[in-house]
């Protein structure tokens, strides 16, 4: 599959929540366009995730967190009509993995929820993080918080759970709409990024280990 087809797929279609964008003229917008150009060039995805020389790591992570949020929103949006309380009464990835929702606010204790409700709360929670200027400052004159990387790790680990649910419970729905190549490329991009910067634990990645070993074969650089 050509990567420009992958980008076309993610630039249209329905999203589960409104797409977040970077303001033109900002450093993060420039980094976002640079990352998109790398994907569009068809280069090795392991290379595409590497921090560009001279750029700030927090800016690079922020760009990718927002971009993955948008892409995974779209992936889930394409199959969300098949993800109901009847078909998916729990947020799970097969019989071995079930995810409970807690946000320290409405859900102070880990709570079992239908997958669709879990993902709705998750995307709302991530949107709040992204829009929080203390966590994701819009301008370069405001510093990132000291624990920015750990915040992003939590966001990315939870986004990975959406991949787990889609792959294990809805992959046939993805195949039906001929989107499997696009979803696989998005997962590879996500996987290489979180591995490059050690942002998601092995435990969280475990449910898709076998699949990752099959599709994440871009040569080391």
TrEMBL record:
SMART domains: Mob1_phocein. It comes from the Eukaryota. The keyword Nucleus does not apply. Pfam families: Mob1_phocein. Zn(2+) binds at residues 83, 88, 165, 170. Keywords: Metal-binding, Zinc. Gene3D superfamilies: MOB kinase activator (1.20.140.30). SUPFAM superfamilies: Mob1/phocein. This is MOB kinase activator-like 3.
């Amino acid at each position: 599959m050509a990567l420009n087809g992958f980008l076309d797929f993610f630039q249209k279609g329905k999203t589960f929540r409104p797409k977040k964008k970077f303001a033109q003229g900002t450093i993060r917008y420039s980094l976002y366009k640079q990352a998109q150009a790398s994907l569009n060039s068809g280069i090795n995805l392991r290379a595409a995730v590497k921090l560009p020389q001279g750029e700030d790591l927090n800016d690079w992570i922020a760009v990718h967190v927002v971009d993955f949020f948008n892409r995974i929103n779209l992936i889930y949006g394409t199959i969300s009509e098949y993800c109901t309380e009847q078909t998916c009464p729990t947020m799970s990835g097969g019989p071995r993995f079930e995810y409970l929702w807690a946000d320290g606010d409405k859900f102070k204790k880990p709570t079992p929820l239908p997958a669709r409700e879990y993902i709705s709360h998750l995307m709302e929670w991530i949107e709040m993080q992204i829009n929080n200027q203390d966590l994701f400052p819009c301008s370069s004159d405001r510093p990132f918080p000291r624990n920015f990387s750990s915040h992003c790790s939590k966001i990315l680990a939870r986004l990975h759970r959406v991949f787990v649910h889609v792959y294990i419970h809805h992959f046939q729905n993805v195949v039906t709409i001929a989107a499997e190549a696009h979803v696989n490329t998005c997962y590879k991009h996500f996987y290489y990024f979180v591995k490059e910067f050690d942002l998601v634990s092995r435990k969280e990645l475990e449910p898709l280990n076998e699949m990752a070993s099959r599709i994440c074969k871009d040569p080391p650089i």
